[in-house]
Known about the structure:
- The structure is a homodimer.
- By secondary structure, the first copy, chain A, is of the alpha/beta class.
- The first copy, chain A, has a domain at about 25-155: P-loop containing nucleotide triphosphate hydrolases (Rossmann fold).
- Chain A has helices at about 15-20, 35-50, 65-80, 105-125, 135-140, 145-155, 170-175, and strands at about 25-30, 55-60, 85-90, 95, 100-105, 130-135, 160-165, 180-185.
- In chain A, strands 3-2-6-7-1-8 form a six-stranded parallel β-sheet. A two-stranded antiparallel ribbon of chain A has the order 4-5.
- In chain A, strand 4 and strand 5 form a beta hairpin.
- In chain A, helix 2 (about 35-50) runs parallel beside helix 3 (about 65-80).
- The longest helix of chain A is centred in the middle third of the chain and has 18 residues, at about 105-125.
- Chains A and B meet through helix 1, helix 2, helix 3 and strand 8 of A and helix 1, helix 2, helix 3 and strand 8 of B.
- Strand 8 (about 180-185) of chain A pairs antiparallel with strand 8 (about 180-185) of chain B.
Amino acid sequence: MAPQGQPEQVPDDGLTTRQRRDRPLLIVHTGTGKGKSTAAFGLALRGWAQGWPVGVFQFVKSAKWRIGEEKALRALADTGQGGTVTWHKMGSGWSWVQRRLELAEDPAGAAAEGWAQIARDLAAQTYQLYVLDELTYPLRWGWIDLDEVLAVLAARPGHQHVVITGRDAPAALLDAADLVTEMTKVKHPMDVGQKGQRGIEW
Amino acid sequence: MAPQGQPEQVPDDGLTTRQRRDRPLLIVHTGTGKGKSTAAFGLALRGWAQGWPVGVFQFVKSAKWRIGEEKALRALADTGQGGTVTWHKMGSGWSWVQRRLELAEDPAGAAAEGWAQIARDLAAQTYQLYVLDELTYPLRWGWIDLDEVLAVLAARPGHQHVVITGRDAPAALLDAADLVTEMTKVKHPMDVGQKGQRGIEW
């Protein structure tokens, strides 16, 4: 809870507290509730404030989707007061329209290409924080190979944090993660007939 | 899920879709998992991108707490490309130190004063989005009267969205909310002895 919180137990792994503290984290935000991506972009705020290079990889295409976050993070990067933010749109292959999945030509190819870019950036240590937004969907649909993703993440060099968002995160991804939060929908205005609105949904 | 999602049912309330769409929302992020506040600050990003005046009311004091978000939102506001962000520190009365609650002199008075400011701003329609960060704690501790909060929120004029974060949100607050997400901890590095680290926890 507190930033300076005491760990609940000290592991017998031969590492100092600082070495453990400085470990790169694999973070997953999953579940059917809201806030998965929003919280990931909140982490991007913190990363920017730390002066980190932040890479956002957006695995969905939509006219409205993430435009607020993209505008804000680009504006932040432009201030020069913190880190950099590089925004990659990897999801030209698919989008949500009226809650229905809409596929472009060769969506699997576009997703695989997106992942290949991430793998290259991880190998090159391009960023200190990676937001892989909605990556769970192409993983679930088999467009990106889960085993390869897990292998690349496990072998990533240096100190690179990775946040993956989306529903139905595969169990093996949760096993590999250091920090997993499930966002659960308790109540949502769409349940009582309200439609999404700007500033809240996008 | 999609920004343009179809409502699951249409209520018999005599309102047009646009009137329902434009309703001000009371949003609660609760639960023991991470991401409650982070997602609220992500909403602040969206609000800023919409050009809204955003008010943040921080109900906890800490040297590290929210400094990244504060730096980022202040920098965004300074760009002049979106809305404004006003950051209020209302929690001079308490803080978390090493996961223990640390109280200053008259914490209840400070919290009550903080709430009075919010009530004034709601009445004056000062902001379009209010982030009431960690408000659930002073509510739980009785420093701020829950019934008064509910009455003020229910009677707020105009089109003001309110996001309240914190563990153990009172049931009556959840009843009053339009959108509730529970963040559940599935796995956390502190469980295996890892301490919080910069860029992730603050």
